[in-house]
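Lab notebook, design round three. We kept the backbone fixed and only want residue identities now. Task for the bench partner: fill in a sequence for the structure below.
Input structure tokens:
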């Protein structure tokens, strides 16, 4: 029995594993005066992207699938209605990163500013504003035309904003200034409330769990894709939801 670890050794190993892979729980004092804990949403999402069983199935962009509708990313809300600042802000194409609200050069020599990314038939597209040079009394400046119908395929993009800044003298166009700043995107979640049923009033709990909305339906209901956020037998749902929203912000 010499190979049986001591309790202290197991506690030390558990502490190390929790620091590496665990999820922090944050205590909140709700607006109604109740104390409760909420798991760290950002850490859960980070682990999802680091999980080889989950990350390959996640969709970061909405999809234009025409009349077909079988996945969440194909819905009109994700494709058209969610504000741009809440969408994925960047697309990695080749060895270049293209951000929304940053100028880009197309292969035909034209310029545009992507403001929304989406998929169509397996190809990444950007909804863009037109960008061209106009001459004023003070010299040449860039003018943005906020048209709604301009769509650019990933195959049409040639240079991102950083390359444009370094190559502007070579191509003979005016130096770009920061037209707009890139925004931070957020992963979308399905969120559920789950009041636990019990035979006594003190056994009832309000709980929040979520699943990444970017997963296909055959993956989304697997147990390891359902994540616990918080529970309480005294704090009402809306009071706890206030803290979940605070983490998202």
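Proposed sequence:
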């Amino acid at each position: 029995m010499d190979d049986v670890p001591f309790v202290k050794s197991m506690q030390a190993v558990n502490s190390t594993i929790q620091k590496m892979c665990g999820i922090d729980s944050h205590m909140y004092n709700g607006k109604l005066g109740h104390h409760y804990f909420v798991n760290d949403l950002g850490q859960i999402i980070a682990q999802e992207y680091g999980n080889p069983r989950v990350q390959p199935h996640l969709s970061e962009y909405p999809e234009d699938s025409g009349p077909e509708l079988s996945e969440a990313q194909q819905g009109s809300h994700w494709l058209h209605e969610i504000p741009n600042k809440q969408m994925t802000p960047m697309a990695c194409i080749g060895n270049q990163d293209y951000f929304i609200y940053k100028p880009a050069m197309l292969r035909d020599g034209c310029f545009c500013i992507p403001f929304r990314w989406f998929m169509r038939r397996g190809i990444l597209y950007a909804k863009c504003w037109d960008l061209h040079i106009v001459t004023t009394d003070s010299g040449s400046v860039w003018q943005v035309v906020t048209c709604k119908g301009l769509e650019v395929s990933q195959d049409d993009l040639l240079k991102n904003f950083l390359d444009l800044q370094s190559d502007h003298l070579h191509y003979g166009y005016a130096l770009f200034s920061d037209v707009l700043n890139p925004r931070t995107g957020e992963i979308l979640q399905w969120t559920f409330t789950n009041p636990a049923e019990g035979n006594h009033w003190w056994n009832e709990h309000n709980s929040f769990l979520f699943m990444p909305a970017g997963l296909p339906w055959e993956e989304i209901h697997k147990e390891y894709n359902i994540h616990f956020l918080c529970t309480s037998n005294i704090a009402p749902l809306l009071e706890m939801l206030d803290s979940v929203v605070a983490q998202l912000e």
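Keep this in mind before ordering anything: Confidence is low (pLDDT under 50) at residues 178-187, 192-202.
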